[in-house]
Specification:
This is Chromosome partitioning ATPase. It comes from Frondihabitans sucicola. InterPro entries: AAA_dom (IPR025669), DNA_Partitioning_ATPase (IPR050678), P-loop_NTPase (IPR027417). It holds the Pfam family AAA_31. This protein is of the alpha/beta class. It has a single domain, classed as Rossmann fold, CATH 3.40.50. It contains 13 helices and seven strands. A hairpin with a 5-residue loop joins strand 3 and strand 4. The longest helix is centred in the last third of the chain and has 16 residues. The radius of gyration is 20 Å and the shape is globular. It starts with 8 loop residues before the first helix and ends with a helix.
Length: about 300
């Protein structure tokens, strides 16, 4: 009587279906990056979306902290008059020089404005409501779209990555951030109305590339506030992947109360709740961007 040979463990593993992530693509295990031998010049990444409440500031804080955890020297630039990034990292925003002073030229050296944080390897240039007056000030400035680029050029050699947290608009401040950047990361809430504005933002990036910054590229679209329990979240994510393909990152940030809790504590999630899945999601994001070369 003939017998069927038992497949080996390796054979069974090879025959097993590949696990799919929320984006419907096979899950990639991005490796822990190697330590860098030297710093700078930094790659500058703008986190941009003209819709508010999509996770730009949360992503800037937690991506910055995760990159720092992997040995990168990171500068986070608060470029939003609401100053949420500064508050989320627990740094002073009043009675200290801010990004506004650098933009209007009352302070020339960014190193006089940079503050350390409670995260080793992560520094911040703070902002406050004064920044809302910058657009009026910049109207009559020569090469007004390039002012932030000139500011950051002075400290690029001090860092590996510079993250710019943009305000929710496509005004002159956001154009400055895009002109200064090498790449753009678009946090996108998994909600229908958030999806509608992405095409306009991509069009704006194309215009900036054509007219102001030919080197800028889209580093990725990051789905945020995803809730796998709702059909709406799943459908929006499916539509984003259908529309933008590989531009959509594999990492997906799920909705959790831990993010507002960490914000209240003025701490990144990887310090506030280091073993929480949300902390691992941002570590995965850091690894993915490094593997793509966007934050190497």
């Amino acid at each position: 009587m003939s017998t069927t040979p038992n497949p080996s463990t390796d054979d069974r593993a090879a025959q097993a279906p590949t696990a799919l992530g929320p984006t419907g693509r096979p899950v990639t295990r991005f490796p822990v990056p190697a330590e860098l031998d030297s710093t700078g010049p930094a790659r500058i990444i703008s986190l941009c979306n003209q819709k508010g409440g999509v996770g730009k500031t949360t992503t800037t804080i937690n991506l910055g902290a995760s990159l720092a955890e992997y040995g990168r020297k990171v500068l986070a630039v608060d470029f939003d008059p609401q100053g949420a990034l500064s508050a989320g990292l627990g740094v002073k925003t009043h009675d200290v020089p801010t990004i506004y002073d650098l933009v209007i030229g009352t302070v020339k050296d960014p190193r006089e404005v940079i503050q350390g944080t409670g995260v080793p390897g992560l520094d911040v240039i703070p902002a406050n409501i004064d920044l809302s007056a910058a657009e009026v000030h910049l109207v009559n400035e020569v090469a007004r779209e390039q002012i932030l680029a000139r500011v950051l050029r002075k400290v690029r050699d001090d860092y590996d990555v510079i993250l710019i947290d943009c305000q929710p608009s496509l005004g002159i401040l956001t154009v400055n951030a895009l002109t200064a950047a090498h790449g753009v990361l678009i946090p996108l809430e998994c909600e229908f109305f958030a999806l509608r504005g992405v095409a306009l933002l991509v069009e704006t990036i194309d215009k900036v590339r054509d007219r102001l910054n030919e080197d800028i590229q889209l580093d990725g679209i990051l789905p945020t506030m995803y809730d796998s329990r709702t059909l709406h979240s799943r459908e929006v994510l499916e539509r984003v992947v259908d529309a933008f393909g590989d531009s959509v990152l594999e990492t997906v940030i799920t909705r959790t109360v831990k993010f507002p809790d960490a914000s209240v504590a003025a701490s990144p999630i990887n310090q506030f709740a280091p073993s929480h899945p949300a902390a691992e999601a941002y570590r995965q994001l850091a690894r993915e961007l490094i593997a793509r070369g966007a934050a190497a």
